[in-house]
Specification:
Blueprint (H helix, E strand, L loop, with lengths): L9 H8 L21 H19 L1 H5 L6 H11 L4 H16 L8 H25 L19
Helix pairs in contact: 2-5, 5-6
Length: 152
Amino acid sequence: MAFSDLTLTRNNIDALEELTFKGVNVTTGSTTLNLSEKDNLILGKAIKLLKTDILENLREYVNDTTYSTETALLDAIYAADSEELLVDLLSYKFLELWFSQDATSQESFSYVKAGTYYRYYNQYLTANLRRLSGLLAKPKTTPRVRFMSLYQ
């Protein structure tokens, strides 16, 4: 399975915010999660940001040719994820972006929710990538050789 297969379902969102979206069931437009006619735009943005964050945190795997391309690394992470940790991260990022749309002031409900999901995302990003990267092939490291001169 490829990283490009990563997506969310309404059940993933309802697991975190069932009461917030209770009774919301949009079926027109290009909806993916039945939250709005264009919720697929936010989902696409969340996937893109998650992908960037994964590559930023695990760039040593690509830099030292453990994985030939960024896509190969993402696919390896997705294949190693048996606990749906990436789906959880994507849920947090999606909800952060969703609530940040309506955050008009720091006292607003949306601002508080967006900040909460932002903190969850960053906390779990570090922990989950540490866990998932432990299931991957270790990055190759080249020992540094230091030549010492006999001349002083």
